[in-house]
């Protein structure tokens, strides 16, 4: 008779979905690294403890150049958890693993296909043609939302790629809020707020007191040094106009 208590327990394997930052380097790589250093200098801790996927799809570099790029990022405390778009011959056992099936837009579909080029985006801009279309009536859908009924302290992160995030309180310096939709902060916003991270260019950021280290919508960003002094410390809303972050006071 077999004693079931002595049999080893099976290993449990579970699927998980995590939000990672996708970096899309450009040639020449050294110039791109200079811009990356500028972002890191103006937003301290931006890459700290943040998982990063390196997207090299279409980038004309060889195996050694890719290896050097990963090494350069490592010296900047940018931890590359995977590489997307690389050829098999470019990778090796000592390199981050290949990543596939990344979804930059989740369930959001833009009304027109746009290739964007600006700080924080590594895409080429092309003219967008407009056309008259017949209106289509679709059933109303409920957008998921997350309400956080406490302040977000320094070092804490709120990730909610499914929809809007509302913070009942403040977002401290060194904290961050990342949302697939809009971000509402009923208090001072001193940390980092990134809205529309799943490709939602219509997302907005609202706060009662703008003192942010960094704000971003759909990958386009502004750091504290780039923000207008007239908005500092005031209730504000931030939105995206084309490829430009725009902000205005509330009330």
Give a quick summary of the entry.
Pfam families: MinC_C. The chain is mainly beta.
SSE topology sketch:
Layout: E1 21-23, H1 29-42, E2 52-55, H2 63-75, E3 80-84, E4 98-99, E5 117-118, E6 121-122, E7 145-148, E8 157-160, E9 164-167, E10 176-179, E11 183-189, E12 192-195, E13 205-210, E14 214-217, E15 220-223, E16 236-241, E17 244-249
Parallel strand pairs: 1-2, 2-3, 3-4, 7-9, 8-10, 9-11, 10-12, 11-13, 12-14
Antiparallel strand pairs: 5-6, 13-16, 14-15, 16-17
What can you tell me about this protein's structure?
This protein is mostly beta strands. It folds into two domains: 21-102, Alpha-Beta Plaits, CATH 3.30.70.260; 145-249, 3 Solenoid (Pectate Lyase C-like), CATH 2.160.20. It has helices at residues 29-42, 63-75; strands at 21-23, 52-55, 80-84, 98-99, 117-118, 121-122, 145-148, 157-160, 164-167, 176-179, 183-189, 192-195, 205-210, 214-217, 220-223, 236-241, 244-249. The strands form four sheets. The protein has a six-stranded mixed β-sheet with strand order 7-9-11-13-16-17, with no helix packed on it. A five-stranded mixed β-sheet has the order 8-10-12-14-15, with no helix packed on it. The protein has a four-stranded parallel β-sheet with strand order 1-2-3-4, covered by helices on one side. The longest helix has 14 residues, at 29-42. It is globular, with a radius of gyration of 21 Å. Mean pLDDT is 79; it is low at 105-140.
């Amino acid at each position: 008779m077999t004693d079931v208590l002595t049999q080893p327990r099976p290993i449990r394997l579970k699927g998980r979905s995590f939000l990672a930052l996708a970096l899309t380097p450009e040639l020449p790589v050294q110039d791109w690294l200079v811009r990356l250093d500028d972002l890191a200098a103006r937003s301290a801790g931006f890459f700290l403890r943040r998982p990063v996927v390196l997207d090299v799809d279409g980038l004309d570099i060889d195996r050694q150049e890719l290896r050097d790029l990963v090494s350069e990022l490592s010296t900047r405390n940018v931890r590359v958890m995977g590489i997307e778009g690389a050829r098999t011959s470019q990778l090796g056992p000592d390199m981050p693993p290949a990543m596939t099936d990344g979804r930059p837009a989740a369930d959001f579909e833009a009304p027109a296909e746009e290739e964007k080029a600006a700080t924080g985006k590594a895409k080429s801009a092309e003219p967008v043609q407009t056309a008259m279309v017949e209106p289509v009536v679709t059933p109303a859908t409920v957008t998921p939302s997350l309400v956080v009924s406490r302040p977000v302290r320094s070092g804490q992160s709120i990730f909610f790629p499914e929809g809007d995030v509302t913070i009942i309180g403040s977002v401290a310096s060194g904290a961050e809020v990342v949302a697939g939709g809009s971000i509402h902060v009923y208090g001072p916003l001193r940390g980092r707020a990134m809205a529309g991270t799943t490709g939602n260019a219509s997302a907005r950021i609202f706060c009662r007191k703008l003192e942010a280290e960094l704000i971003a919508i759909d990958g386009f960003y502004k750091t504290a040094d780039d923000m207008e002094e007239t908005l500092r410390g005031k209730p504000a809303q931030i939105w995206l106009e084309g490829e430009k972050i725009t902000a205005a006071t509330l009330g």
